[in-house]
């Protein structure tokens, strides 16, 4: 599976922070090195080879783990010789498209998978396997290599479950923390993050764990409440941790450590951001959304959607920079914001809607100016994706397409009602909270449905876990059950 991004020169590597896709492989990765284009331009950062096929190479940046895809013809003679010699010395790798964290490789709700069906049969894609025994919760799975990782429960405890890619059979399980009441929606709600042989996960009671990917054995653990004085809302914690370089980023809430950065190797604090104390009021309380990383106005920062609104925090020191309040409501802010350039879009439900704001820096001051606000974009739990200049997402009843530049509603359709959304290979996979799943072409020209099916073995709970597309497979988690479909 490959996403083609044609770049004029490797000099652009230092500017890439957006929607490049990641494909991982099970074979031993290449070493980090500088690469050169056919016109003699040398990369400004080191990259390693991740995959080579279909006349393209996929190279992962050392500084931020983003992936760049280049045609072989754009590489220098020396680099093509390096690849030829490496291939001669190594067996052909088996590559799979991974979904290693919340909302996929780049945390934007987009899968790098290609070659997927553009139309479904009447019964939908083929169900390969389904397993039960995951207990309660709304966790969206992560998929890396030949293993699926998802959070669930056993009795009154929450666990990470590792399941086999081929048949769903159990590999290992590792305790996270105590199952919370979750305001009537018990169980974990986040997605594990898989990075460098370790897995990071947050339980609904605010327990953050790091375990070994190989066997689930514990490495370190933190408590949002005990270690950081965390403050959460009625439904407790629903966050998925962000791994950025050597840091784990999460939002315990509280006046002094509302957003924290920890060392990913041992959990030691790097900084605590006093968002609650600086911005006051509802900014001291964690929301239910998960943090992203972006560079805005030349400053790398972490974007969090807290109870009071969206905030930007300096990535190096944790200094609170700016906030955008309009998309927040007083009940629950669940959907992860998206960033493009210096603009951020965020939305919530409960009568609120969604807006896009431009963030600018003038001297030492940060300014936020709203560009548009769409009352109808009441995103509850299902998030939205930005693709080729358009935002796609559901409100409480319909799937909508918005123009990123103007906020104009290009179309709306009942589709499967309120749900969650994932993009792959030119299409939207929309999962309604009642169990229907639809395939919709991602185009601003109009609503074009390419098929739908109703998930079997439904629980009596809302289907709030997002659909996951890893390689040519679709994964749906429904409380006690996990289902795997073939997209072929």
Radius of gyration: 21 Å
* Secondary structure category: mainly beta
Task: Give the count of helical stretches.
Answer: 3
Overall pLDDT confidence: 90
The main β sheet shows up as: 5 strands, mixed
- The CATH first-level class of the largest domain comes to Mainly Beta
What fold name goes in the CATH topology slot of the largest domain? Methylamine Dehydrogenase, Chain H
Which architecture name of the largest domain does CATH use? 7 Propeller
Please give a structural write-up.
By secondary structure, the protein is mostly beta strands. The chain has two domains: 87 residues, no CATH class; 377 residues, YVTN repeat-like/Quinoprotein amine dehydrogenase (Methylamine Dehydrogenase, Chain H). Helices cover 5% and strands 42% of the residues. The protein contains three helices and 38 strands. It has a five-stranded mixed sheet with strand order 6-32-33-34-35, with no helix packed on it. It has a four-stranded antiparallel sheet with strand order 7-38-37-36, with no helix packed on it. Strands 8-9-10-11 form a four-stranded antiparallel sheet, with no helix packed on it. A hairpin with a 2-residue loop joins strand 24 and strand 25. The radius of gyration is 21 Å and the shape is globular. The N terminus is likely disordered.
Structural topology:
Layout: E1 24-25, E2 47-53, E3 56-61, E4 67-71, H1 77-89, E5 95-96, E6 110-111, E7 126-132, E8 142-144, E9 147-154, E10 157-164, E11 170-178, E12 193-195, E13 198-202, E14 207-212, E15 218-223, H2 224-228, E16 242-244, E17 247-250, E18 259-263, E19 269-273, H3 275-279, E20 292-296, E21 299-305, E22 310-314, E23 320-324, E24 338-340, E25 343-348, E26 353-362, E27 365-374, E28 384-387, E29 390-394, E30 399-403, E31 409-413, E32 419-424, E33 427-432, E34 436-441, E35 449-454, E36 468-470, E37 473-478, E38 481-486
Parallel strand pairs: 6-32
Antiparallel strand pairs: 1-5, 2-3, 3-4, 7-38, 8-9, 9-10, 10-11, 12-13, 13-14, 14-15, 16-17, 17-18, 18-19, 20-21, 21-22, 22-23, 24-25, 25-26, 26-27, 28-29, 29-30, 30-31, 32-33, 33-34, 34-35, 36-37, 37-38
